[in-house]
Amino acid sequence: MKQRKKWLAASTKIAALAEYQSKSPSLRAVARKCYYDYLKRKAMGNEELELIVEFIRTVQTSTNYAVGYRHMTNRIKTGLSLVINKKRVLSIMSRYNLLSVVRRKRFTPEQYLRRRELRAEVPEDLLKRRFFSLEPRKIFVCDITYLLCLEQVLYLNSIVDLFNREVAAWKISQRCDEQLVISTVTGRPSNRLI
């Protein structure tokens, strides 16, 4: 009985080899191992391929094409319980136009975190880009200008009334700090806003 099984296995291999050698000349240049791998893959069926493509398509549409082929391989292994190579997933994704959209990062993760924190700390915009006023001495804006001199840099802090664009107060200092702003707002009596 065992000899019969061995003989059947050997005869099927001989038949497959004869079929391989009788194929066109272009196929003869293909290595034998590659040919048998191709037959094995072909025997796997299109049902599994359609299942994988549909799974990839649903994941990509739900994540807005943000999952690459490496992470998709892990999702297929856990979601479909299939053992699949990442190169095959890449091949399927490129063939069916399901590749992820690459967004190159400009900054390090620390810089992104710092920028996010700065955005969270931005005070509310009270003017909402309306730089005019219907009444005098109601809306003021502050600006610091750099004055480049021969030997040093000076800082001019000016406060402007948005009604008629008149400079309500100004102060010059050698340092650009909060003291410059405070002294401009609460300066001498002729210059005071409050």
Architecture overview:
The chain is α+β, with helices and mostly antiparallel strands. The protein contains eight helices and three strands. The chain has helices at 2-22, 25-28, 32-44, 46-62, 69-79, 86-95, 109-120, 178-185, and strands at residues 140-148, 153-161, 166-173. Strands 1-2-3 form a three-stranded antiparallel sheet, with helices on one face. A hairpin with a 4-residue loop joins strand 2 and strand 3. It is rod-shaped.
Entry keywords:
194 residues, alpha+beta, three-stranded antiparallel β-sheet, 3 strands
Helix and strand topology:
Elements: H1 2-22, H2 25-28, H3 32-44, H4 46-62, H5 69-79, H6 86-95, H7 109-120, E1 140-148, E2 153-161, E3 166-173, H8 178-185
Antiparallel strand pairs: 1-2, 2-3
Helix pairs in contact: 5-6
